[in-house]
Model the fold of this input.
Amino acid sequence: MRFKKVGWLMLLFALLAACQSEPGDPRQVASWAPDAPNAYAFADTPTPIPTPTLVPLPTLEPTPTAVTDFEIPTRAATAVPEGTFTRDFDGFGFVYPSQWIFEGESGNVVALRDPSLDLIVTVNYDFAEADFSYERLRDDILGDYGESLNLDDMQTISEMEVAFATERTAQRAILNGTDRNGEPIGVYMAYTLVDDHFFSLFAFGVPDNVNARLHTLDAIVNQVSLGARTLFGLNHDETLVLFGGDPALASLDPALTTGSAAGYVGLLYSGLVRLTPELQIVPELAERWDVSEDGTVYTFTLREGLTFADGRPLTAEDVQYSWERATDPETGSRTAATYLNDIAGVTDKLADRANEISGLEVVDERTLVVTLDGPKPYFLAKLTYPTSYVVDRETVDDESLETWALSPNPSGPYTLKEYREFEALIFERNETYPTLPAVKNVVYLLSNVADPLTMFKSGGVDLLFLDNTDAEQIRRPSDPLNAQLQSGTSLCTTLMQMNNTLPPFDDVQVRRAFALAVDKDALNTLLANDLSVRADTILPPAMPGYSLELAQEQAANQNNVVLAQEALAASRYADGLPPIIITATGLGNAERDDLNAMIQNWRETLGADVSVEFVNSTSNLRQNGGHMVSYGWCADYPDPQNFLDVLYHSESDFNVASFNDPVIDDLLEQARVELDVSARLLLYQFIEGQLLRDGVAIPLLHSVSDVLVSERLEGYVVSPVGAPIVPRLAINPEAGEGD
Done:
């Protein structure tokens, strides 16, 4: 068994230190704390998009594995009975004398102390790896404790079986020896296998004290509970468990959130249409839609009998209200200008030149007519973003977000049952929703003392997004978890944006020189252990319009020192570059290995003096932008407009580097209204080629998602975009239940 040695040793040394005080001295109780589409057809059926070209994921050969803005109300902590330990995520529990002190939990290890006899007790119930054995458990535990124990002096005094849980037994051994100071010490060990888990209890103290507590320790082992898993009183078989982040209230408001529909807001609210993980646009609150011949008027028919969660009817007036609210300047939405600005009158409303959106007309309770300012083939795709989602006008209080964000009347598939600050967000199925999700409850754990990978192995969470270290190991076919791994490229690109309005980047040759000098392969190794896909284009591989030919053209000159120096020599700044500033998000003392590596490239190749200035959020990048801006963009819908227009049109709020080119603006505006699918994609490919050849952007990486998926979970697919996946999942209680 490979133990989390940091957790074990933290517990051991902190607790044994308290036991080794001189006789008669006041005891110092050791303190311990855990680490802490394109819409080209119009009907009530899924809208097809061009099949994306996928780039294969990097593969790893099997190698031997080494052994070694608002304040949120605070909720009172839930009381736990004295002398009882329970863990919801795996159903494990036990009782212990109420006068004992609960010292803490690290990973799956629980630490207790008997203050009357200075006895230290650690209890563990954890996933057992394939090479588990009793001998290895004993040797590893005692080996971890070697700094305090004299291992050569340890002798086994007795071995026997003791009762464990119900109709099971555990092996129990008593060892005596001395610690490193020569003082006598006794060890009680009990351990057993429970299907794919192991249980162990270790107690340390003076031998006589260990012997005095044998019956108590045996009783703890005997009364271990391996009951049904519950979580906050919810049936595990009806509950999807995920890791989540503590919500900012703005993230729960469709008009204010800048997150995707895959977040909390996508559980609580819905729009007229939805984007599936397979990148198809399907009806949601709308039953169907019709589009005028010129592509400028959309007539939406809502489903019959729609209601909010409390039963109040949801009508076309509620859709209109939600969009009017999102575009009200006083609401302060950062996304309305991007996702609703194709509707006639939205620009005037956002600029406070109009009181309402002229392009909206409510015909009756189920019919909404939307007039655009021109034919926009991607309009439906924009409506899959939360900005257009429907809120209850009788609940919303724009004067006090705190009063309604955590007690909403949702239009979406789930309601917010309970928020436990720093602990959990608990969602419950909205039984009034027209397409009921299969999973009744969804719990997002906001903090957890256990190791995430251990939690997944133990069935404590159903999905786990992996960091590079774990992904590198689990991608190997030999890893036991490999069969539960799903991987896929995302619609995300990390890039460096150039400000062509500031010298020296007002010279195309300087921009080209900087782009040619970057070693992208080295960056991929440095930042992602070669687990991401090197980016040679702005558009990611799964995006319609992605050009493999353009990618190959750009890759041919990647990290070309000679061409970079020639480009600089041909520029107006051949005699010397002024100091150059990169703007990036982060703290002033942040260490960015990617930026340091690129700065080193530019210094050695071009003699450039480059420094970094940090801002505290992406919203400040445009206002405080330097010569270059370090940025990442993930598409919210699968249309190249969501990358190229959003990032490079001079009037876009997300044009963080203030790039300005009237020719590019004109081309982007042409692409906006081109209804022919092939012509649109070819035009976007041309625009992207111009941007790259002019050195406007330096694409660096396309990220890859590596996700562990529980065997009991059905319907999960890795989506390249932030589509609402939870409502389409199902739980099979009989799958993957080995414990």
In short: The chain has a mean pLDDT of 84. The longest strand covers residues 168-178. The longest helix spans residues 677-693. Residues 492-702 form a domain with the Dipeptide-binding Protein; domain 3 fold (CATH 3.10.105.10).
